[in-house]
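Lab notebook, page 48
Experiment: co-folding of the full assembly
Goal: obtain a model of how the components sit together before planning crosslinking
Operator: M.T.
Materials (sequences as entered):
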Amino acid sequence: MNPLKQFFAHCARPQGRMGRLMVRGMNVGHKPIASWGLAQLDGEGSFQRIGEFGCGGGANVQQLLHKYPGCCISAVDFSEISVQEAQRRNRAAIDSGRVQVIQSDVAALRLAAESFDLVTAFETAYFWPEGAFAKVHELLQAGGLFCIVHELDGSTAMARFWERWVPGLKVPSADELQARLRAAGFARVETIHRPRFGHLCVKAWKMCTLGMREGKNYECQRHQARTRSAL
Ligand SMILES: C[S@@+](CC[C@H](N)C(=O)[O-])C[C@H]1O[C@@H](n2cnc3c(N)ncnc32)[C@H](O)[C@@H]1O
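Observation: model returned without errors.
Model output:
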């Protein structure tokens, strides 16, 4: 394989020394897109139980801890190197019980249903297999939010360029993401573009099941209040 492609293959699943370099680089290089993505959550209220999926080196876990001081985070990645780096970077929060880092494919995660009120995915859903969005849907509680943040929008020439260089990269357009999210069961999907940069944030809410089960009312009221204020 072309050496450049070999290097970029570590975007999809970092491995070995080069993978470690890539993960540390992404912690720095993805800061602007992650900060923009996190700003898209302003106005959504606070979150307590967060899944940070495809967490890479764990820099976004730190940002989430800072943004939501009361939260606990389960960070997930299937790369051993990413898990090690995320653990190293968030050691204090792991020791205090606020963060756990799990090595798993998102699609095969074995956690209790409705474990999270927010799941985030920064620069990673491009690589996820069939079934991963349905897994996120299962792991969100009613009214919960799934937030995907992409530096690339699949409808641009830039996306086609990077697909040639990064093995495993398949950049969806906003419409494709919306269709996949709806097929996975998400009731409401909203897209935010940052046209000058080609950045994309897609927010998807799990349907609110008000009154169907005990203990869900608080979440549903919050969801309803948010929906009302958006009208
Ligand atoms: C391009 S990196 C982005 C890392 C981090 N989110 C960031 O913004 O810097 C993609 C990460 O997603 C992970 N990943 C890709 N597909 C995955 C899957 N199916 N399950 C779990 N992790 C996955 C990779 O191992 C890698 O660490």
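Interpretation: Confidence is low (pLDDT under 50) at residues 211-231.
Next step: discuss with group before ordering constructs.
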